[in-house]
Structures are given as structure tokens and as C-alpha cells.
Design goal:
Blueprint (H helix, E strand, L loop, with lengths): L4 E4 L9 H13 L4 E6 L9 H13 L8 E2 L4 H13 L3 E4 L3 H6 L6 E2 L2 E2 L17 E4 L1 H8 L4 E3 L5 E3 L4 H4 L4 E4 L3 E2 L1 H11 L4 E5 L6 H10 L6 E5 L19 H6 L4 H7 L4
Parallel strand pairs: 1-2, 1-12, 2-3, 12-13
Antiparallel strand pairs: 4-7, 5-6, 7-10, 8-9, 10-11
Helix pairs in contact: 7-8
Bound molecules: glutamic acid and zinc ion.
Glutamic acid binds next to β12.
Length: 271
């Protein structure tokens, strides 16, 4: 599709498996007359490894894909800091000093959101300005007050116009920056999709529930709206979704056994 800028955004924390192949090939196929970009999501420096980055290049090249210079999130920390500072000035963030145990203890019936436990809001009333070593949370209600109602276009399995509601109840005050790791996934992905001029984010259905967070952050930061394309998850014979440690289904393992890129396309239902 002409004009598309799509990206594949793997974390280099293990081998790419069939689920990643499906994601990368879907993005590639949808960008035939556009641009396919690669973003290495290596913010978790404890788990990211250069050999997995090389593995990503090898697997994708073998599948027949190419891309301009990849973007490494580890080189983008200043951009995330700038975005975080801007949100701070808008008054929609606060410092949070709670541990996971604190969060669990504050609730009688802890509720799960797209980001794990929904935060009970303990630190919100304090409205402390985050210091350099604090976790930073988004004040969801305050943020929605500024943006008003949200909407986004989905072109994948949830195709249609979506108008997220109940974000305070069902998502809550998500973390935007962690004490030890800096910018969290939600902030980084939004800042980088805009920086890379991505027009459509292709990714697994598991991230659909987090998409309203990304739409909200994009609107707060005045970034151009993008479309989303969520695809079905690739599962093993028992119906379990593939995980990083599922080495048996690594693309490299199929390659070593003599499979062709066409075989991989067939295995994920693309050929
Ligand atoms: N880095 C994420 C992952 O490995 C994907 C992020 C995205 O596509 O928005 O699952
Ligand atoms: Zn807290």
C-alpha cells in the first residue's frame, strides 16, 4: 500500500520465533509500496544482547526483508526524557514510590489491566514532582481531562473505529518511567513511532488492550495519529502462544533444518 510506513519492533532478548516472523512479514507485506522499518527495542539492558540483534538481522534477511538503518531505543533516552518532562509540565504525571507489594496490599481485590496490576492511586494525591530516581506514573483521569475523548483506527483483526472508554477503571495510572530502566515501553513506542514517521503499527493482538494508552500519549504530546493493525497470535499445537524461550519454534531452528522462507510463510498462514 502506497505511502505506508510500517515497522517491526522486536526486543533483542531471545531468538525470533514463528510469531515474530508473522509480525515482520505482515508489516512487510502491508508496506510493499511503502517503507518497512526495523526498530530494536533494547531498553531492557539487562536482557538485551548483541547476539540477539545479529540473530534478528539474519532471520529477517533470510525471510527476504530489508530495511534502512535500524533505530535502537537505547540511543533515544534523551527523546524520552524530553517527552516525560513535557508531560510533567502539563501536570499529568506524578512520582510513585510504591513497590509491587505495596500495590497488592492497597487493594482487597487486585485487578489486572494491560500493564499488570491496576495501580490503586496511593501516590497520586501527593502529586510529588518526580526526581531523577523516581518511577513516574501517568495520572489517567487528569490526562483524559486534557485530551477529551479518544479514537483510533484499527485495520487488523479488530478492524474499525475505536473509542476507548473506562480507561481510568480498566487501565489506570500506568508507569511511564521506571526507577531502574528509564522510559517504559508505552512512552518509548509512542515517541519512536512519531520519530520514525510510522503510519501504521503492526503487532500482535496482545497489545490491543494497551493501544488506548498509546493513543492518549500521542494526543497529549501532539503527535500525528497513526493507524494500528493487530494480528492474531501464533500458537503451538496445544493452543499456547509462542514465547521467547520456545526455541524449538525459532526461525533459526527451522532454517537449520532446511526449511525455506516459503515454508515459514505457510506455517504462519501467509502463503
Ligand atoms: N517490542 C514489542 C515486542 O517485542 C513490540 C512493540 C510494538 O510493536 O509496539 O513485543
Ligand atoms: Zn505509588
Amino acid at each position: 500500500m502506497a505511502g505506508y510506513v510500517n515497522r517491526f519492533a522486536p526486543s533483542p532478548t531471545g531468538p525470533l520465533h514463528l510469531g515474530h516472523a508473522f509480525s515482520a512479514l505482515t508489516a512487510w507485506d502491508r508496506a510493499t509500496e511503502g517503507t518497512f522499518l526495523l526498530r530494536i527495542e533494547d531498553l531492557d539492558q539487562g536482557r538485551s544482547r548483541p547476539e540477539w540483534v545479529r540473530g534478528i538481522y539474519d532471520d529477517l534477511r533470510w525471510l527476504g526483508l530489508d530495511w534502512p538503518e535500524p533505530l535502537f531505543q537505547s540511543t533515544r533516552l534523551d527523546a524520552y526524557d524530553t517527552a516525560l518532562a513535557r508531560l510533567g509540565e502539563m501536570g499529568v504525571t506524578y512520582a510513585c514510590t510504591c513497590s509491587r507489594a505495596d500495590i497488592r496490599a492497597a487493594q482487597t481485590a487486585p485487578q489486572e489491566g494491560p500493564d499488570g496490576l491496576i495501580y490503586p492511586g496511593t501516590c497520586r494525591a501527593l502529586h510529588r514532582r518526580p526526581g531523577p530516581d523516581d518511577a513516574v506514573r501517568l495520572d489517567m483521569a487528569a490526562a483524559l481531562n486534557l485530551t477529551g475523548p479518544l479514537s483510533f483506527t484499527e485495520t487488523g483483526i479488530f478492524a474499525g473505529e475505536h473509542r476507548p472508554t473506562r480507561m481510568v477503571e480498566d487501565i489506570g495510572d500506568v508507569v511511564l518511567s521506571r526507577r531502574t530502566m528509564g522510559a517504559a515501553y508505552h512512552l518509548a513506542v509512542v515517541v519512536d513511532d512519531a520519530f520514525q514517521n510510522v503510519s501504521e503499527a503492526v503487532r500482535g493482538a496482545d497489545l490491543f488492550a494497551a493501544t488506548p494508552i498509546h493513543v492518549l500519549l500521542g494526543k497529549l504530546l501532539d503527535l500525528p495519529a497513526i493507524r494500528f493493525h493487530h494480528h492474531r497470535l501464533i500458537r503451538d499445537e496445544t493452543g499456547k502462544r509462542l514465547a521467547k524461550r520456545d526455541d524449538a519454534r525459532a526461525i533459526a531452528a527451522y532454517r537449520a533444518e532446511g526449511a525455506t522462507p516459503e515454508d515459514v510463510r505457510r506455517m504462519v498462514g501467509l502463503a
